[in-house]
Design goal:
201 residues; alpha/beta; single chain; binds adenosine-5'-triphosphate; Rossmann fold
């Protein structure tokens, strides 16, 4: 079994996440992609993040039509910071081959994660460019995880300049964000009245 894990805050999930997951699935011949919403995204401490049950509903809506995608509640159900090395260690007990899927911006952040070396030992990294982060491994990541280059599978992906932050701002400003959101996610945001509060970021 070849599995990709796409971890994120998903506040909200958007077409950039789906394009990334699909690129990994197709190019690495994955049997499935597991979307893993963080329970407590500790690297975003100090930012206001929607409650975990809301983000879980949004992710489930985002992947509802994708037969190759699952949503895991492993991190949502766990208390304390959502450490990816811990998550992957638990998942990999099933056996099979594992990839952690990410945008290239994550390579810059990785040295500040817990046990990045262990993470990269358990899973290969499937990485797509996310401008301004290009197809380069930052020096800090090379220092933190020796040999990381050999553990990366670069994905071809037409860049999509979108972020959850930008979409929250659009919704808050009353602008249409439908172009970047899966339709079910757009509907749920409407229904739940998310991101309208001016203090939400
Ligand atoms: P925020 O703006 O709130 O920080 P985000 O849009 O970066 O959120 P996350 O849920 O934090 O979304 O991202 C989860 C993963 O998806 C990360 O690996 C991130 O690099 C990747 N990702 C998100 N948006 C894109 C995109 N447009 N292109 C490529 N990768 C993306």
């Amino acid at each position: 079994m070849r599995t990709g894990v796409l971890g994120g805050t998903f506040d909200p999930p958007h077409r950039g996440h789906l394009r990334l997951a699909e690129a990994a699935r197709a190019q690495l011949a994955l049997d499935r992609v597991v979307f893993m919403p963080a329970g407590d995204p500790y690297r975003k401490a100090g930012r206001r993040v929607s409650p975990r049950d809301v983000r879980l509903r949004l992710v489930e809506a985002a992947v509802a039509d994708l037969p190759w995608a699952d949503v895991s509640t492993l991190e949502i159900d766990r208390s304390g910071p959502s450490y990816t090395d811990e998550t992957l260690a638990v998942l990999a007990r099933e056996g099979g081959d594992w990839w952690f899927i990410a945008g290239a911006d994550v390579l810059r952040d990785l040295p500040h994660w817990r046990n990045p070396r262990l993470l990269v030992e358990i899973a290969r990294l499937a990485v797509a460019v996310r401008p301004p982060a290009g197809r380069v491994v930052p020096a800090e990541a090379l220092r933190a995880v020796p040999g990381i280059e050999g553990r990366i599978d670069w994905l071809e992906m037409e860049p999509l300049d979108v972020s959850s932050t930008a979409l929250r701002a659009r919704v808050r400003g009353g602008a249409d964000a439908g172009e970047w959101l899966p339709e079910r996610v757009r509907q749920l945001i409407d229904e739940l009245g998310l991101y309208r509060d001016t203090a939400s970021d």
